[in-house]
Amino acid sequence: MATEVKVPVLPESVSDATIASWHKKAGDSVKRDENLVDLETDKVVLEVPSPVDGVLKEIKFSEGDTVTSQQVLAIIEEGAVAEAAPAEGKKAEEPKAEAPKAEAPAKAAAPAPAAKAGGAELPPGARATAIREGVDASQVEGTGRRGAVTKEDILNYARTGGAGKAGGARPEERVPMTRIRKRIAERLMQSKDSIAMLTSFNEVNLAKVSAARKQLGEDFQKTHGIKLGFMSFFVKAAANALQRFPIINASVDGDDIIYHGYSDISIAVSTDKGLVTPVLRNVERMGFADIEQGIAEYAKKAREGKLGLDDLQGGTFTITNGGTFGSLMSTPIVNPPQSAILGMHAIKERPIAENGQVVIAPMMYIALSYDHRIIDGKDAVQFLVDIKNQLENPNRMLFGL
């Protein structure tokens, strides 16, 4: 019985998707729930699993094609068995029967290394590129999801003189933007063109936060099964401050200001495809363990490419941590329709004056970029000072001060 594999129903905010890569080719056996193809939308990469066991009889669209909700991607013959394995088995026996012909099959199999990389089947686009460029794909380091070798990896390897026909001292390459990268570019330009953006700075002494993590970190992990990181302190401090400064948590809608009575905080996460911002919802009700577990779950999903559209939609405020990559100071860009974003940076030990004495303390610069149309400088500065006071006196968070 023939079974159709369709594009999943896409949300209203996503009109279509692009076929990123097929993991199977026509004639291959497939198992139920096995990933057949990756679809790239403006926000996430969606995996389309096989609905049944059988053989992939027909592929309707190629890599790079654009598809919409419920379009048929492929046809699977349910319960069928692929004929490729027995055919290959018969061919393999022929050299044993006739020893003098052993060299001929060896020559015919020469292109085989180009069809696989590290023992994994190449996507059709990458396979064709490897053959065209004369590249042994097993020698190419993959940058795709789960280390897969992509068409771009093959081209880069060939054109930098690694192998193949191309090369030279001054290589260049033109590669189309991915759907996610295009969307990121559009959002950044939207923010630049539609928001009167301004950034205020402050610095935080994280000595007491560091001491709390050192003193209670082991017990925290034993009790909750997760490490106590710096991020949960910042997220909780921001949620508390947003309750005291609701304008920072508001958004602009035409000539209206929408005040949100909840703190849905977007956490910026870097992935191979670009920056994504999954949302922790109702953070004002969450404890430190809930925050850490939520962040860890999103980080895992992001690494595995399994973030869903629901994970990314909404958000009233964003926190981004450039310090992970060594950034000392930056001016983060507001993610519309939100009105503000908090930037964390690298922790550096620096000499500061404390109680009339010079001491060495772990210091961090923090930045708040905000929409000056509705947020005055006074509110932005006081919001940063509120976060600073909480982080320099963590007990204030426990008592809601």
Report on this structure.
With 401 residues, the protein is α+β, with helices and mostly antiparallel strands. It has three domains: 2-78, RNA polymerase II/Efflux pump adaptor protein, barrel-sandwich hybrid domain (OB fold (Dihydrolipoamide Acetyltransferase, E2P)), CATH 2.40.50; 110-176, no CATH class; 180-398, Chloramphenicol Acetyltransferase (2-Layer Sandwich). Helix content is 33%, strand content 25%. It has helices spanning 84-97, 103-108, 112-115, 124-133, 151-159, 179-194, 207-224, 230-244, 288-304, 309-312, 377-392, 395-398, and strands at 2-6, 17-22, 29-30, 35-40, 45-49, 54-59, 66-67, 72-78, 116-117, 120-121, 197-205, 251-253, 256-258, 265-267, 269-271, 274-276, 279-280, 317-321, 340-344, 348-354, 357-371. The radius of gyration is 27 Å and the shape is elongated. The model is unreliable at 87-92, 97-114 and 163-168 (pLDDT under 50).
Question: What keyword list fits this structure?
Answer:
Chloramphenicol Acetyltransferase, alpha+beta, OB fold (Dihydrolipoamide Acetyltransferase, E2P), 3 domains, 25% strand
